[in-house]
Amino acid sequence: MNTSSSPRRRIHLDTIATVFFIVACTAATVWIVRDIVAGPARIAAATRVPSRTVRPPAPPEPPIPAEPISLDGAVLKGDAHAKVALIIYSDFQCPFCGRFAHDTWPALDSKYVGTGKVKVAFRQFPLEAIHPFALGAAEAAECAGNQGKFWPMHDLLFNNQKQLAANDLSGYADQLRLNRGAFESCMSASTIAKVRADAVSGAALGVTGTPAFLVGAIQPDGHVRVSARLVGARPTADFEAVIDKALAVPLSARK
């Protein structure tokens, strides 16, 4: 047996082990350094708040009124024999109400009210907490209505939503050639009670914002059996869909 090669073999094995150890340490050092450098970025990425927040679900819409509702006290427009009613809860300082008045109402007025198919019932719903001039504007519209000029005042108020102070309202009364004394007397009387009664009726029906709409068949006693509710400045097509559906209900099924 040749024993002279054993020391050489050990030296060779030791050299291989040393090289392997150096390579392993080098690799471990590289990984450690990479983790030190990348660590803060990884932590930040893990704890970063997403830029897109998830919106909470919209609250459910109030149910359709189970019983027919009254139109008493509302400002009415349309044929007395109309089959369907469109009930509007609105605020003269509300920008979305203004959008409805400008973009949607004229088409509905022409297509349904002017043709005798639909009666409109306008009710006041001033959001006093966020619209400081809405209450006065609502009173002005009601007082103009006492002189047969509700709808002209309605248009003036929505066309001038940024000018609804007391002096502005008096100017609109003059523009419509209202009896100034009767108008001023009305504005200082109990008209506010009528406006707030409208708002109370809306709250009882689940109205929380404006504009809000109820559509339904007019019963023989003048009450309305509501079949649809719309909220916000919706496209004209949305109103047409629910109105046409209500008009299509046979007379025998309207009770």
Could you give a short description of this structure?
The chain is α+β, with helices and mostly antiparallel strands and 255 residues long.
Structure, explained:
The protein has a five-stranded mixed beta sheet. The chain folds into two domains: 7-46; 75-253, Glutaredoxin, CATH 3.40.30.10. The chain has helices at residues 5-47, 95-103, 105-113, 134-145, 150-159, 166-175, 180-187, 191-204, 236-247, and strands spanning 75-77, 84-90, 118-124, 212-218, 224-231. The chain has 255 residues and is of the alpha+beta class.
Comma- or semicolon-separated keywords:
2 domains, 5-stranded mixed beta sheet, 9 helices, Glutaredoxin
Would you spell out the secondary-structure blueprint of this structure?
Blueprint lengths: L4 H43 L27 E3 L6 E7 L4 H9 L1 H9 L4 E7 L9 H12 L4 H10 L6 H10 L4 H8 L3 H14 L7 E7 L5 E8 L4 H12 L8
Parallel strand pairs: 2-3
Antiparallel strand pairs: 1-3, 2-4, 4-5
Helix pairs in contact: 4-5, 4-6, 4-7
Percent in helix: 40-55%
What gyration radius follows from the Cα positions, in whole Å? Answer: 36 Å
Provide the CATH superfamily of the largest domain: Glutaredoxin
Instruction: Please report the total strand number as a whole number.
Output: 5
Which structural class best describes the helix and strand composition? alpha+beta
Please tell me the CATH architecture of the largest domain by its name. Answer: 3-Layer(aba) Sandwich
Distance between the termini: 118 Å
* Number of H- or I-type helical stretches: 9
Sketch the topology as an H/E string, one letter per element.
HEEHHEHHHHHEEH
- Overall geometry comes to globular
Indicate the mean pLDDT. 85
At the first level of CATH, the class of the largest domain is Alpha Beta
Strand content: 5-15%
Briefly note the CATH topology name of the largest domain: Glutaredoxin
Write out the strand line-up for the largest beta sheet, numbering strands in chain order: 1-3-2-4-5
Question: Which spans have pLDDT < 50 for at least 5 consecutive residues?
Answer: 17-25, 27-33
